[in-house]
Amino acid sequence: MTIERSDFGQTADGKKVSAYRVTNSKGAYITVIDFGAVLVDVVVPDRSGSMKDVVLGYHDVASYEKNPSYFGATVGRNANRIEGGCFAIDGVEYELTANENGNNLHSGPDGYHLRMWETSLNEKNGCVSFTLNSPDGDQGFPGDFKVTVTYMLTEDNKVKIHYEGTASQDTIANMTNHSYFNLNGEGSGTIMEHYLRIDADGYTPVDEHAIPYGTVEPVEGTPFDFRTAKKMSQDADAEDEQLAHTGGYDHNFALNGSGLHVVAEAYSEESGISMTVMTDQPGMQFYAGNFISGPVGKSGKTYGVREGFCLETQHFPNAVNVLAFDSPRLNAGERYSTTTCYTFGIKG
Known about the structure:
The chain is mainly beta. The protein contains two helices and 27 strands.
């Protein structure tokens, strides 16, 4: 396993950004940068042995300073949506920035994906760790929060992402990675012919602003039944109120099981590349890239609608305000720790 550092340019305010490429003995590699702790590249072999970069993104800092679609982003303190941009802990109310339809999305416009992180390396284990100190009141959240995100590439082409942190006050901790995948290679066109399986008997229906009603409903008999693998296109344009609310798939699934276990698998017949998702989180957002529009990506091609999909592991959206959902609360002095893995292989 090797880790190579290279210059990735500098931010608008003159901070130098470094890229770290982790390569295994098979030639697969990932690239991460210390701006935003962003996952820039995931390069793995296809059926023919050709190497393909299967995540959408950019190769310049200026694009990541904008990054309206959150390509490769480390999202924190709280991923997904909080209704009204406010919540309470033990009767104390906290207000966040309302940056989408009066709600708070991905913690607001000054997210962790727009910060410089401190870096440490473990070349033997193929690990790059990024650490951020988020002070009390940052983004509106209580407590000093020190968090580390570690990326690891293994010899079996597993990308392991581990989050760990502590806070000085009771707060919210619900982080995710917002990579968009295309198993035919970024810039190759639609992902809707990919197959997807999600091990979830239920999902959380949403209103017209993508805020869950607060219930978990069965997927059976709905377009959200991915318990048996099917093409993403099969039911994506069905006449369904939930799909109409979000322009297609952009919903949280209530995952079966607990602990670190397999929760989903995606597969492309065209490339032969498969991706298995493992997590210890209770939920996962499947977003089919319904609103990708216009950015020019790494290959110089313009990304379009449904040319990348996200499988974002998480606590349920707005869980901080819904007693029936698993709480993303992190008590002072407790250790926040969660892991998600994306493993790439060949199928068929």
